[in-house]
Give the backbone structure.
Amino acid sequence: MTSSAAFIHKAAVVGLMFCAIFVLQLGYWMTWPYHIIDVKGLKVLDTEIEVGEYLEYSLDYCKDKQYEFLRAQVQLSFRDGVIYNLPLESGPLVSGCTQALFVLRVPAVPEGKYHLEMVREYSVNPLRKVEVRAVSNVFKVSNARRFKEMLKQQLPPVIHEVAPKIPELR
């Protein structure tokens, strides 16, 4: 073999090795079973709450120390057959086995029985996201206080708010 043929042969071998390493890395990223967090329970602490009040809930979990600083996109939703999504949140949880308490304001949803669903999405590498879902116990949302507040304020009928005032002619 000439020196140029030997160089091309070595370059081809090195190139194939890099391609093989790249394919193996992609396979590892796509198939590795990531165990970031094990959710033991999601519990709403109030069994009955009104729209606009603050709902307390707890998350009982164990998070692997290796993923201590990995942040999650958190999607909370109220579910009663219809899904009422709350705005996305982002934040880390401390590692280890513990219980975290959270508070959220109950959005304007119809009266009824709901459960809270939490979806935590972790971006573990450039190609893969891992989702962890948890569903809470059932709780009741009511709107009674809002209607009582409206009656106390003695709001004028809607027709008076909509009707334009006509200036008097002098």
